[in-house]
Amino acid sequence: MNQIPVTVLTGYxxxxxxxxxxxxxxxQHGKKYAVVVNEFGEIGIDNDLVVxxxxxxxxxxxxxxxxSVRGDLIRILGGLIKRRGAFDGVLIETTGLAxxxxxxxxxxxxxxxxxxxxxxxxxxxxxxxxxxxRLEDSHEAVEQxxxxxxxxxxxxxxxxxxxxxxxxxxxxxxxxxxAIYRTQRCSIDLAxxxxxxxFDLDRILGIEPNFxxxxxxxxxxxxxxxxxxxxxxxxxxxxxGWLQRLLGERGQDLLRTxxxxxxxxxxxxxxxxxxxxxxxxxxxxxWEPDEKRNSRLVFIGRNFDEAELxxxxxxxxx
Length: 318
Prior knowledge:
Elements: E1 4-10, H1 17-26, E2 33-38, H2 46-49, E3 57-60, H3 70-81, E4 89-93, H4 100-109, H5 111-116, E5 117-127, H6 131-137, H7 139-146, E6 150-154, H8 161-174, E7 179-182, H9 201-207, E8 224-230, H10 236-250, E9 254-261, E10 268-275, E11 278-286, E12 295-301, H11 306-314
Parallel strand pairs: 1-4, 1-5, 2-3, 2-4, 5-6, 6-7
Antiparallel strand pairs: 8-12, 9-10, 9-12, 10-11
């Protein structure tokens, strides 16, 4: 039976998974993919950061793809199986807090999914600048590297060449067999990450003998998300100033900040992306004439005051 190839894109918060996804979708390869995007938070942001393409995007919010929404994933895959001729493969972008092992289990615990799909590879994007910290405080970051078939050591422009060597050595100690590529903004020949037929069940069983048991896993419950939204246009200077001060003071606890925002006097949406204290902001595509200009801002991290962040966000209204 002609099985549908599935590529899982994983990596910790802010490593560059959506950047890699967009590279795959915009490349001139002549293939069409169904895309599944999972987010940690009740308001979706990543879905709107996926480039405008012919691909159909399925979004799952407010849960880890390896836990509460795995039933949704099986349901979506079941629907895609029935439409086999409409696309060439499936891309799954997990939340940055996902352990890829239970994601991979999905392709073995459901009989129909196991027969009709093929897990081609697990591709892990690693933030070269912050990975050392994440390996100390997040078991998900360790597991994302351990279960990878391909690793993109990304954002190498933010790290000196001398510092990259021990980082790569640390990664190799966790996963001695994965292919490792050094990248900036996930720029890579897609032949290195797609259609690899790289997933090796025997290797995974060597790492986790109980892999096929379907057992769950634990999350660091200290990590939480806060989703903010408003229909009122925002003052750009006030908003950017507040975010810069906030990240400068509390960035160590804010693992990931991202938003799609409507600024007063601007016809294009403003996209904010931040990892700890490092923030980028840029104008993206225009709002459609009949589109509701709803600003959405999501924080993922630890030890933050939800009421204060909500009040500060609302005070940025124009």
